[in-house]
Amino acid sequence: MMYGLAAVARAPAVVLGVVSSVESGALCSYINPSLSRRRYSSAGWNHCRINRMPSRKLLVRAARLESKGPGLGFRAPYFELSEPLTGKTWKLEDFESYPALLVMFICNHCPFVIHLKKHIVKLSSFYMKKGLAVVAISSNSVVTHPQDGPELMAEDAKLFNYEFPYLYDESQEVATSFGAVCTPEFFLFKKDGRRPFELVYHGQYDDSRPGNDLPVTGRDLSLAIDRVLSGQQLPPVQKPSIGCSIKWHPK
């Protein structure tokens, strides 16, 4: 099923006897404390046997956010951001010589990003060799999510061997100017000569999500990049990216 770009969805999950929270990193916490637990950590799933199930069902709504506007043809906003790993400041104009630019809003902690992270590194490396410019940006508030702060961003970039700059949007002004709302969120721009970068793809990486057992392929984004680099038109209807909401600063 194809989705429009301007959509925000919250997907309910019905779970028997558990409270589901994908974004917090814990799959479930059983209501009855005597039951065994199954939790998610950075090391992976820890499995254990459930002794017995509670007698009642609990309806849980696990929120996830879809990417929405801006529309195709949107011009890439100016940005000037620091890269925590190197201390270098990157600007939009640093990528002016490239035929296409992929801007990814990601972070350290989001399970939807973690699910794709290794494949994103491989895909980015492959297309950077073909002339694609790639930049990743984290805009999450360190007030609410210190695990997404610049020091840990640098560690993440080093751990996963990012070949692209991973920039810190402390003010969140860049996320706002792009209209970014979730992680991961992908903005693919093309450039024709001296014209500004124009948005041609604002959709999902592929159909794989944490827990849906579909393999990570990067199919949707790969097809979009292939078409841009070969000068082909992209379809106007694109499946939105789905992930954790960007963590805005408390008001």
How much helical structure, as a percent, in the residues?
10-25%
Tell me about the biggest sheet? 5 strands, mixed
Overall mean pLDDT stands at: 80
**What topology, given as strand order, has the largest sheet?**
12-11-10-14-15
Radius of gyration: 19 Å
Task: Report the β-strand fraction as a percent range.
Answer: 25-35%
- Pick out the low-confidence regions: 1-62
Element-by-element helix/strand order: EEEEEEEEEEHEHEHEEEHE
Shape annotation: globular
Number of strands: 16
How would you describe the oligomerization state of the chains in this entry? Answer: single chain
SSE-based structural type: alpha+beta
Query: What distance lies between the first and last C-alpha atoms, to the nearest angstrom?
Result: 37 Å
Q: Number of helical runs? A: 4
